[in-house]
């Protein structure tokens, strides 16, 4: 007798919805692969529009990720280690962009950083800088949406790390900054890497906040997700090719995080 | 390095407070001994600068490390080395980098720091493991790296937090001997925190025993071992401890009963004797000057090569006898016997 039989059969009432749910998640992706114009794929991939959108996406997502790292790691450290009052509230605030509809984030960014926005008017009059509807605006929109992923991942790693190692460093004469660089950060490196990958993937796929805050100007603000949306009307095959590329990126991200999320049981 | 470390550690948290005076002279090893939760680690953390005092002071010569509300020197600016209980070696650095971390943090140039680190690794016999990661080291080796890391900065005060607790019994003996050698070579002041009386007796010049945040006994190990003052200390050193009032050579015990001692005294006394000094008999023994009283066996426990017998009577005591005697007397809980104790085996000393 097989061991699985000892506990009896799995009830149909659970198995049926489970199979349906799995199909619901997987079939559309398979459809995408089935409909992809594989014959002309390489040619399309290296066409001007696709190449442009791809390059812009990668550059903007990477810049956004750098901003998230520079600002997000210190923020995560403060949330995990700092003696700041109301840390719970701060943590909740940081995670708002996670659940906020991205288009709302885009509107909020416009109101603050727009030419007549609270901050934007000063940027304009002092530095002559205007962010909306520029490539820089794309980076800002993506960073806004993606930063919580990095902060949460790094903060979780920091909270799991044993603070006594930092005490040991202090007794050896290390300042808090040196301790952070040489002891704390290396010990949470896996969390930082995971957060960075997630952050980058989220930035790459950003649509709502980008189109609202940065608009849709080919070569300047039209990233891949925007290009997919546009191409669906004019050139469906191009939309499929772009989608396949984004799907490949997602799968790669998932594979790179497999030790954390996939695998195990 | 001629002044002693002088401290009065007063701090507390949630209904538990610590009030411990401490002095550690240069070259001296003081063991802070006590049961779990007595406040040993709290004292160590205040000395290291990881926990501020609420009252009292910590001074070394002219410099005051902590004296609320006037002064507080943060941990990274105190000339202190700490060996933590589980060593806390940095896992992403090699043994050499771990040891070089302190000098680097204190501004020594890289090459010089590595040179000093290698010197110390050589001193503790681990030069060939310089490039090893901590997780590839054995417990004993990790402890020596931790010791080298703490000593390389030539601290004025060395703090050891249960330095042998993480080791298994077989390596413990060897590592203890070696640690003792390094401590004797170290010219600074050492405070060793431990709950193991053997570590304390072997490594320390002086013991300070604390219970519930207060010092209950202090002295050189031989003195403490011979004349315990609390039940905890008596248990640590393996003696029976009874309290009483002495008049000449007769002590009438606080909890009932009377013992004859060899040395005359008067006033409140402690009397101590090893469980092996208590003998058991079926009939009341006669002859040489000894104390005899009726007892009932409360329980039996095997200890290495002897059986420890808990005896209920006036007084109640522990006796160590051989398994052969247990068999001969057919001992079991409830057996009625006579206990005998020679007057010359009893240590009597003033209660305060």
Are there runs of chain B of 5+ residues with pLDDT below 50, and where?
A: none
Please indicate the percent range of residues of chain A in DSSP E strands (runs of 2 or more).
Answer: under 5%
- Number of helical elements of chain A: 13
What's the average pLDDT of chain A?
87
Which fold name corresponds to the CATH topology of the largest domain in chain B? Rossmann fold
Largest interface: A-B, 18 and 23 residues
Secondary-structure element sequence of chain A? Answer: HHHHHHHHHHHHH
In short:
The complex is a heterodimer of chains A (265) and B (352). With 265 residues, chain A is an all-alpha fold.
What does it look like?
The complex is a heterodimer of chains A (265) and B (352). By secondary structure, chain A is mainly alpha-helical. Chain A has one domain (40-256): MetI-like fold. Chain A has helices at residues 12-35, 41-45, 48-81, 87-99, 102-113, 120-127, 135-160, 164-171, 176-187, 189-204, 208-213, 224-234, 236-256. The mean pLDDT of chain A is 87. Chain B has a six-stranded mixed β-sheet, sandwiched between helices. A five-stranded antiparallel β-sheet of chain B has the order 2-1-4-5-6, with helices on one face. Chain B is of the alpha+beta class and 352 residues long. Chain B has nine helices and 19 strands. The model of chain B has no long low-confidence stretch (mean pLDDT 91). Chain B has two domains: 5-235, Rossmann fold; 238-350, OB fold (Dihydrolipoamide Acetyltransferase, E2P) (Beta Barrel).
């Amino acid at each position: 007798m097989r061991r699985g039989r000892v506990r009896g059969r799995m009830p149909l009432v659970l198995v049926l919805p489970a199979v349906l749910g799995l199909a619901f998640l997987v079939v559309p992706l398979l459809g995408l692969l089935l409909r992809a114009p594989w014959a002309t794929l390489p040619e399309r991939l290296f066409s001007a529009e696709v190449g442009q959108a791809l390059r812009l996406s990668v550059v903007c997502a990477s810049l956004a990720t750098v901003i998230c790292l520079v600002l997000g790691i210190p923020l995560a450290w403060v949330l995990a280690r700092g003696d700041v009052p109301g840390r719970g509230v701060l943590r909740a605030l940081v995670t708002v962009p996670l659940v906020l509809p991205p288009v709302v984030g885009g509107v909020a960014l416009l109101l603050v950083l727009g030419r007549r926005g609270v901050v934007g008017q000063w940027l304009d009059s002092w530095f002559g800088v205007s962010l909306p509807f520029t490539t820089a605006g794309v980076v800002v929109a993506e960073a806004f949406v993606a930063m919580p992923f990095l902060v949460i991942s790094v903060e979780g790693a920091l909270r799991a790390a044993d603070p006594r190692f930092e005490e040991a460093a202090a007794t050896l004469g290390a300042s808090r900054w040196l301790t952070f660089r040489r002891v704390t950060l290396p010990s949470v490196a896996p969390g930082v890497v995971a957060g960075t990958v997630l952050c980058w993937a989220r930035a790459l796929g950003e649509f709502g906040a980008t189109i609202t805050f940065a608009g849709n100007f080919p070569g300047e603000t039209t990233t891949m997700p925007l290009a997919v949306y546009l191409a669906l009307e004019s050139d469906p095959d191009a939309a499929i090719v772009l989608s396949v590329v984004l799907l490949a990126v997602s799968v790669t991200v998932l594979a790179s995080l497999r030790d954390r999320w996939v695998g195990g049981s | 390095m001629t002044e002693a470390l002088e401290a009065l550690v007063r701090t507390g948290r949630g209904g538990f407070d610590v009030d411990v005076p401490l002095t550690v002279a240069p070259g001296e090893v003081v063991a802070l001994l006590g049961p779990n939760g007595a406040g040993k680690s709290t004292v160590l953390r205040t000395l290291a600068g990881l926990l501020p005092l609420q009252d009292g002071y910590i001074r070394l010569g002219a410099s005051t490390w902590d004296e609320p509300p006037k002064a507080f020197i943060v941990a990274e600016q105190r000339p202190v080395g700490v060996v933590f209980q589980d060593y806390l070696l940095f896992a992403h650095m090699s043994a050499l980098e771990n040891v070089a971390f302190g000098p680097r943090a204190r501004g020594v140039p890289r090459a010089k720091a590595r040179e000093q680190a290698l010197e110390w690794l050589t001193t503790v016999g681990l030069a060939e493991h310089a490039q090893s990661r901590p997780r590839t080291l054995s417990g004993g080796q990790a402890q020596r790296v931790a010791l080298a890391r703490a000593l390389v900065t030539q601290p004025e005060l060395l703090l050891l937090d249960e330095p042998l607790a993480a080791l298994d019994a077989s390596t413990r003996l060897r590592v203890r001997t070696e640690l003792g050698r390094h401590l004797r070579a170290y010219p600074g002041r050492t405070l060793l925190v431990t709950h193991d009386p053997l570590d304390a007796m072997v490594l320390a010049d002086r013991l300070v025993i604390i219970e519930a945040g207060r010092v209950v006994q202090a002295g050189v190990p031989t003195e403490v071992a011979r004349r315990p003052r609390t039940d905890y200390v008596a248990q640590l050193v393996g003696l029976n401890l009874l309290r009483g009032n002495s008049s000449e050579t007769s002590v009438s015990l606080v909890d009932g009963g009377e013992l004859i001692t060899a040395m005359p005294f008067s006033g409140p006394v402690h009397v101590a004797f090893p469980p092996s000094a208590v003998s058991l008999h079926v009939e009341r023994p006669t002859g040489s000057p000894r104390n005899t009283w009726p007892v009932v066996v409360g329980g039996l426990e095997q200890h290495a090569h002897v059986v420890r017998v808990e005896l209920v009577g006036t007084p109640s005591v522990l006796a160590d006898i051989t398994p052969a005697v247990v068999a001969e007397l057919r001992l079991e809980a409830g057996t009625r016997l006579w206990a005998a104790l020679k007057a010359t085996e009893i240590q009597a000393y003033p209660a305060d």
